Amino acid sequence: MAALYVLLFHCWLYTFPGYPDSSAPRWLDGLMFGRIAVVFFLVLSGFSLAVSPARNGWRPGGVSRFLRRRAWRILPPYWAALAFSLVISWLVVPASHTGPPTGRSVLVYGLLAQDMFTAPTPNGAFWSIGVEAELYLLFPLLLFVRRRLGAVVLMTAVTLLVAAGGLTAAGATPVEGDNWLTPHLVPVFVAGLVGAGIVVASDRVRRLPWPRLAAVAATPVLALVAVKGSVWTVNHYFWVDLAVAPAMTMLLAAVATGRPARLVRLLTTRPVRGLGDCSYSLYLIHLPIVMTVVRRIAPEFVSPGLPTFWFTLAVALPASLSGAWLFARIFEMPFKRNRSWKSLLAPVRSQPSGGEERLGSRSGRPSPEPSGSAAGRTDP
Asked: What are 329-364's pLDDT values in tens digits?
């Protein structure tokens, strides 16, 4: 659902110029917080990755094994989406006002180094994947601190370090560029990591009113954003990110403990679960589709402004969802179902070659039947 919100945010962002003081109608202002949805991704990532270690005494189960499994899960669809984004950027519409990607872009983004090095982007959504990669490298160390010193020390240490850096910046708000975002987003990831402890906590802790606590924690942040407006919010995301992370963590704790029941039922419905199955693919490929619709297709049919926005929703939304479903089937699901190249390629290797089939027919021996086929099946 957060990935779907990012898609809607980009439909809004590229339709109406002037962000953060957008020319969009005020009643669409609720779509301007795409950054907050990505912060939620990071909280959720820390939470979900830490649930298994939390059940195992906060041990990662082997650093090299953890990093291999993360690479196996994240990289294949990411590299496929990178290739897709490069083709769109070179042949259809550049993903950045700085021009089409270069050879440096291929190297930087191929190595997930976009948070450390600047290059023309092939896909504006890829900034967070570089941040995630750096957080994965930190994850074993964060678990070690959590195991040895406790949740309070871990959370306090990373938050104070980041807050001190922010307060010493000019105007007490660091100016954000296209990279070096990981340091200030570490507390967001750690908030999710620490929150995973609620899953294995005592019944007394699990029964706390987490939905209500999440609402209480979110209210002052939402009120501040509403009062200060979009320009202030975007210019102070450094602090907004940190302020909203506790509410997000409590929301995840609520859902993990089965509350509120209506939200849990919604999240377990078939359409939402299906959306979740391809949400990573949706995040990876939606932006080139949206930009193609907004900048190449819509101008041929509708006028700028609100007509372009509705046209983009009508075309880019279903195209992105169906494209993400297909993309996930090809580049995500096989790697989720299999943990190694050996198991991934096993079905292919088990198929008989054409030469073996012909030899079997000539010799009068039955051809080998693929594993799992029904005995006595007679259909071709």
From this structure: 999 999 999 888 888 888 766 666 554 444 444 444
What's 56's DSSP letter?
A: T
What is d(CA 33, CA 235) in angstroms, rounded to the nearest whole number?
12
Q: Name the nearest CA neighbour of 228 among 38, 28, 21.
A: 21
Cα–Cα distance measured from residue 348 to residue 351, given in angstroms and rounded to the nearest whole number: 6
What is residue 35's DSSP assignment?
H
For residues 112 and 133, give the distance between their C-alpha atoms in angstroms, rounded to a whole number: 7
Give the residue among 345, 353, 351 at the shortest CA–CA distance from 369. Answer: 351
Helix (H, G, I), strand (E, B) or coil at 145: helix
Q: What angle do CA 269, 52, 114 make, to 5 degrees?
A: 85
Q: Per residue in 97-135, pLDDT tens?
A: 778 999 999 999 999 999 999 999 999 999 999 999 999
What are the structure tokens assigned to 164, written together? 């001190």
The amino acid sitting at 139 is F
Cβ(121)–Cβ(109) below 8 Å: yes
DSSP-derived secondary structure letter, 27: G
The whole model's pTM is what? Answer: 0.89
DSSP letter (8 states) at residue 185: H
* Rounded CA separation 201/208 (Å): 11
d(CA 195, CA 181): 22
